[in-house]
Amino acid sequence: MQKLLLVILLLMPIAGFTQTSYDLPDGTRMQAYLAIPEGLDGQAPLAIVMGGGAGDGRIASGTFESLGQEFVDRGWAVATPVSPNGQSFFAENGEKVRQLITLLKTRDDIADGPVLLGGISNGGISSLQIASSHPDEYLGVVAVPAIANSSSVSNLRDFSVFLRIGSEDQLGWGSRYESTVSALESAGAQVNALLVEGGGHRVPIDWDNLELWLETVK
Predict the structure, then answer these.
(1) Are 160 and 141 in contact (CB under 8 A)?
(2) What is the percent of the chain where pLDDT is above 90?
(3) What is the pTM assigned to this prediction?
(4) Is 149:172 a contact under the CB 8 Å cutoff?
(5) Cα–Cα distance measured from residue 102 to residue 99, given in angstroms and rounded to the nearest whole number
(6) CB under 8 Å to 54, separation ≥6 — which residues?
(7) Distance of alpha carbon 25 from alpha carbon 35, whole angstroms
(8) pLDDT (tens digit, 9 = 90+) per residue, 38-67?
(9) Which of 1, 58, 158, 190 gets the most CB atoms within 10 Å of its CB?
(10) Alpha carbon of 127 to those of 6, 11, 41, 194: distances in Å?
(11) Confidence band, pLDDT 50/70/90 cuts, at residue 138
C-alpha cells in the first residue's frame, strides 16, 4: 500500500506548473517553467530560480522541480528560465532574464516590485552578476552554491545574499568560500554565508534558516 501511494505521489503533476515560450522585447524567444502557488489570495512575490551548467531544458526542469518547487510550497511564484542559446545566464543572457521578469510581472497573480533571484552553481553565479548590475530591482540572492570575485560582483551596498557552499564541493568551490564571502562583503553585500561541512556541489539547504532570511528580505 505504501509503495502504491509513493507511485501515485510521484505521478502527480506539480500544482500550477506550465512551460511557456515568451517573446522578449529584444526579439528573441525564451522558454521558462512557471508555477503559481495553489490557493493564492492576491498576488505572489516572484522568485527567479536558475539552474547550473548551460541552463538547458533538462537542467532547468530539474532545478525547478527541486529548488523551485520548495519556493512554490512557501508561497512564491517561481520561474526557471531555459537558456535560449546553450549558455548560462551571464552577460547578454542576464539581460534576457530581466526582460522575462518584466513580462511576468504583467500577470495579475504576480506582485510588482523587486524580485528574488536564486540559483544553483552557474545559476548562483548568474544571480549575483545580474543583481550587481541592477541591485534595486531585486530583493536578494539565494546562491546554493556560487563563487565570486571582485571583478564579477560590485554595487551591492546593503544587498542581501544567502550563500551556501559545500566543504567537499567536487569542483573545489569549498576552497573559494572565504574569497567569495570577502568579495561580496567588499561590494557592500550583507552576507548570510555558511560552509556546509561534508556538503558537495549540490549542497543541502537549511530551510529553517533560509525561511528566516526570506522573511527579512520580503
Answers:
(1) yes
(2) 85
(3) 0.91
(4) no
(5) 5
(6) 83, 86, 87, 88, 122
(7) 22
(8) 888 889 999 999 999 999 999 999 999 999
(9) 190
(10) 35, 31, 28, 18
(11) very high
How many angstroms separate the Cα of 42 from the Cα of each of 15, 102, 111, 112?
Answer: 17, 19, 8, 12
Residue 66: other Cβ atoms inside 10 A: 14
**3 state SS of 114:** coil
Strand order across the beta sheet in which 115-119 lies: 17-23, 29-35, 77-82, 46-50, 115-119, 138-143, 160-166, 190-196
Q: Residue 122 has which C-alpha cell?
A: 552557474
How do strand 115-119 and strand 138-143 relate by DSSP bridges? parallel
- Please tell me the number of Cα atoms within 13 Å of 51 on its side-chain side: 24
- Binned at pLDDT 50, 70 and 90, residue 5 comes out as very low
Domain ranges for the chain, please list them.
13-217
Supply 33's cell numbers: 517553467
**Residue 15 in contact with residue 72, Cβ under 8 Å?**
yes
Q: Output phi, psi for 147, to 5 deg.
A: -130, 160
Residue owning grid cell 553585500: 189
Protein fold of 13-217: Rossmann fold (3.40.50)
SS3 18: strand
